[in-house]
Amino acid sequence: MHTDITIDALKVLDAIDRKGSFAGAANELFRVPSAISYTVQKLEEDLNVSIFDRSGHRATLTPAGRYLLEEGRSLLEAAEALAHTTRQVAQGWETRLKIAFNTLLPVEALFPAIQQFHQLGVPVEIQLMEEVFAGAWDALQSRRADLAVGADTVSKPAGQFTTRKLGKMPFVYAVAPDHPLTKIPRPLREADIEHHPAAVAADSSRHLPAGSAGIFRRQRTLTFTNLAQKIAAQEAGLGVGWLPRARIQQQLEDGRLVALEVEDTRQDVDLLLARHAEDKGKALMWFWDRLSQDESLSHWVNG
């Protein structure tokens, strides 16, 4: 069976799109720009379609090129999963462990466990990926991740998953100290808040329904890719919203953020460790047991 589309060509298209240029893709893939151009040209000739529109100052994907890339990314994920699973079967330890962590948790929460794992001296690569809302479950379900840390209970999809509870994360409604909402001498109502932009971290899910929390129906939004950016925006007075208390404890103590009382309170969020029930690789199970009793992680979850 012969196909004109190769995994290598799809990797090149993916790199060009993510890096924004042929030169950026060449740098990421450790190739010369001419090799990138040749791969794209050959693919266009083999398929007899134009993948890039070169009429402007920079090459942009044609509709056919965009379709090829989006569908091709699914093939790249499938190929990566196949290669990873094959290596996993052949060895006692996985060659790579991909951990998706909820943006509600700082990446530093995982550092103690990773440091201890490195001391074992086993040749396993650790890949961390930050996800928002349903993104942690999406990464696990689609096999982009082997382990989800901080997956919420609301977004859990159907499937054979094993979970362990990490705790309940408390939230506070926080604004900059000079924000107009600090002048209201009573618990805030929807009518008080809805005129001020909400700082939002966008759901990173690719397949599961996107979620959001704590946004009023008529409220404008200012959207970011992770919680750290959302916190910075609220410190700058650009937006308002709920934030995990443990993540902003220092800002609250320093006066860079102020916690306000709101009539419609937000419930604590249950956070879980999650994995596919049938997956029991050595590295996966090591992190599963280690993170289940990690005091540092517990601090960030439970505040």
Task: Describe, in plain words, how this protein is organized in 3D.
The structure is a single chain. This protein has 303 residues and is α/β, with parallel strands linked by helices. The protein is built from eleven helices and twelve strands. It has helices spanning 7-19, 22-28, 33-47, 63-90, 111-118, 135-141, 190-193, 227-235, 249-254, 282-292, 295-302; strands at 52-53, 60-61, 96-102, 125-131, 147-152, 161-169, 171-175, 198-201, 221-224, 241-244, 258-260, 269-276. It has a five-stranded mixed beta sheet, sandwiched between helices. A three-stranded antiparallel beta sheet has the order 10-7-11, covered by helices on one side. Strand 1 and strand 2 (60-61) form a beta hairpin. Helix 1 crosses helix 2 (22-28), helix 1 crosses helix 4 and helix 2 packs across helix 3 (33-47). The longest helix is centred in the first third of the chain and has 28 residues, at 63-90. The radius of gyration is 23 Å and the shape is globular. It starts with 6 loop residues before the first helix and ends with a helix. The mean pLDDT is 91.
